[in-house]
Amino acid sequence: MSKFNLPIAVTLGDPAGIGPEITLRAWRDRDEHGLAPFAVIGDPALFQALAAQSGTAAPIATIETIEDAVTAFARGLPVLPLANPVQAVAGRPDKANAAAIIESIETAVALARAGRASCVATNPIAKHVLYEAGFKHPGHTEFLAALAAEPGTEPPLSVMMLWSESLAVVPVTVHIPLAEVPKALTTELVVATARIVAADLRTRFGIAEPRLALAGLNPHAGESGAMGREDIEIVAPAVAQLRSEGIDASGPYPADTMFHARARAGYDVALCMYHDQALIPIKTIAFDDGVNVTLGLPFIRVSPDHGTAFDIAGKGIARPDSLIAALKLGARLATHAS
């Protein structure tokens, strides 16, 4: 069976956040958006209570295997039960749910790696909740990379890409303080990140010759060294190395001129040197329908481009747009990977 015909494994996320309710709404709107079958790995009782509370017309179909989601999808939201219990109050995160949150992620990855799910779609988690329960990973992406590692080997370098139909961006350095970026940024890191981006754009996005535009670290890309040497000594050599390998890379460009419509037409993805340099433009352009895609893993992982939103959880106002976009993109990527 090709990956295109397999269901998507959706994780629970933090059950006190908006993940469960946007999953219900995505299933409710499945026909409108032409969504491929998916199953959430969670607690059927939680979803039944949430559907009743919110008035969402979404019956729950408890399934025994992920494969059952294909036939169950038309009659209800397929839920593959967890072994760990879930006791959630909307808007009130609780470390008692950490085991269930982690089990859901581990199960989804195991199903994808075993070829039983086309991809993994992760609902948002709150890292501080997991930290309180002893979680050892810096974040979601790092945990997924650890799960992808073969026994006795280091986790693969994973790359976070934020994607929309209008713009795709990759931060080379991610969740570190801005003051630490110049120390963390190296030519080797830029090159390694760009290689992964180029490879996944070819194999998963079907772009034969991906075009990578690299932003400069400093204002005006350093103004020929007047505003910092990093763009001359780190970024420019990375561009040269990538081009010598046959990768269509260009830059470094001043970041303040890279994201208007005319500029965006000239590349497939923008590689940015730090977190906000990448996330501010895409969240301005595609706030509701951006998708977080992890590149460099041996399975496809997509996620909504937003957090748990505890402040609006349970109020019936959370929008499923980003999760729907993630599910559609996951199914699309699976067609290229199958």
Give a verbal description of the structure.
By secondary structure, the protein is of the alpha/beta class. The chain has helices at residues 19-28, 30-33, 44-54, 69-72, 98-113, 127-132, 140-148, 181-184, 187-203, 230-244, 261-264, 275-285, 321-337; strands at residues 8-11, 38-42, 60-62, 77-81, 120-121, 159-163, 168-171, 211-215, 248-253, 269-272, 291-295, 301-304. β6 and β7 form a beta hairpin. α9 packs across α10 (230-244). The radius of gyration is 20 Å and the shape is elongated. The model has no long low-confidence stretch (mean pLDDT 93).
Write a concise keyword list for the protein shown above.
Isopropylmalate Dehydrogenase, 12 strands, 338 residues, 13 helices, alpha/beta, twelve-stranded mixed β-sheet
What do the pLDDT scores average to?
Answer: 93
Helix fraction, binned, reads 25-40%
Oligomer: single chain
Order of the strands making up the biggest sheet: 3-4-2-1-5-12-11-6-7-10-8-9
Radius of gyration from the CA trace?
20 Å
Low-confidence stretches: none
How many structural domains are formed by the residues? Answer: 2
What is the structural class? Answer: alpha/beta
CATH class of the largest domain: Alpha Beta
Q: Would you identify the CATH architecture of the largest domain? A: 3-Layer(aba) Sandwich
Strand content: 15-25%
Question: How many strands, what sense, and barrel or not for the largest sheet?
Answer: 12 strands, mixed
Shape: elongated
Look up the CATH topology of the largest domain.
Isopropylmalate Dehydrogenase
